[in-house]
């Protein structure tokens, strides 16, 4: 990969990981509801799960989807159902002091698995492979995936810390309920935007 192409990839990857989307909104909600330490498995699940998805997409999943176009529709339906369920869970999250008993953040496996039904993740993975690993050679796909591993540290930390910062403001049940419902609404809105043709 040339230096210029890598800079373009770095810019593309940074913009896609730092902007609001299902992962980042859920990380912010997790930071607000559970704090930084309890959100670390969620952060790691995204930080390693999404690059793994990119690698697998680049190494063949993209070809399978091209061979059987109805798979895109199945993927969209599964994404919508799962994101609506997650939005409901966020909207009904317990206050931070009750969260230990009444809820828990996503685990590493849940966060990594979520990438496969996240419409923004699919858009990012397909776009990154199409633009920066056109020949789908292993080395090029690894460069793309590795770039996302590095940038995920910045992105996941930023969103969880932002949510944790809001935690102090959310000690009032009414404000927490409003925040959680707002996050749930934004999650649904981000899904709608990602699914638009």
Walk me through what this model shows.
- The protein is mainly alpha-helical and 197 residues long.
- It has one domain (22-195).
- Helix content is 84%, strand content 0%.
- α1 (3-18) packs antiparallel against α6 (119-132), α2 packs across α6 (119-132) and α2 (22-67) runs parallel beside α8.
- The relative contact order is 0.23.
How much beta, percentage-wise? under 5%
**Topology pattern, helix = H, strand = E:** HHHHHHHH
The number of helical elements comes to 8
Q: State the helical fraction.
A: over 70%
Distance between the termini: 30 Å
Largest sheet: none
pLDDT < 50 runs, ≥5 residues? none
Whole-number average pLDDT? 84
Tally of structural domains: 1
Instruction: Give the structural class.
Output: mainly alpha
Radius of gyration: 17 Å
Number of strand elements: 0
Give the CA-based shape.
globular
Brief account:
This protein is an all-alpha fold and about 200 residues long. It is built from eight helices and no strands. The chain has one domain.
Descriptors:
197 residues; mainly alpha; globular
Present the secondary structure layout.
Elements: H1 3-18, H2 22-67, H3 70-91, H4 96-102, H5 108-114, H6 119-132, H7 138-167, H8 173-195
């Amino acid at each position: 990969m040339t230096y210029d192409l890598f800079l373009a990839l770095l810019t593309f990857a940074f913009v896609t990981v730092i902007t609001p989307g299902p992962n980042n909104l859920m990380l912010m909600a997790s930071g607000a509801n559970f704090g930084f330490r309890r959100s670390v498995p969620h952060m790691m699940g995204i930080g390693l799960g999404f690059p793994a998805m990119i690698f697998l997409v680049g190494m063949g999943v993209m070809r399978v989807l091209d061979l059987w176009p109805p798979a895109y529709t199945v993927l969209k339906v599964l994404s919508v159902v799962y994101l609506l369920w997650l939005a409901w869970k966020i909207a009904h999250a317990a206050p931070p002091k009750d969260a230990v008993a009444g809820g828990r953040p996503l685990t590493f496996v849940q966060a990594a698995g979520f990438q496969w039904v996240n419409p923004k993740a699919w858009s990012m993975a397909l776009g990154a492979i199409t633009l920066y690993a056109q020949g789908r050679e292993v080395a090029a796909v690894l460069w793309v995936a590795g770039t996302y591993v590095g940038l995920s540290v910045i992105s996941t930390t930023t969103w969880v810390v932002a949510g944790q910062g809001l935690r102090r403001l959310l000690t009032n049940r009414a404000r927490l309920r409003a925040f959680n419902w707002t996050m749930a609404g934004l999650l649904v809105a981000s899904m709608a935007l990602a699914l638009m043709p």
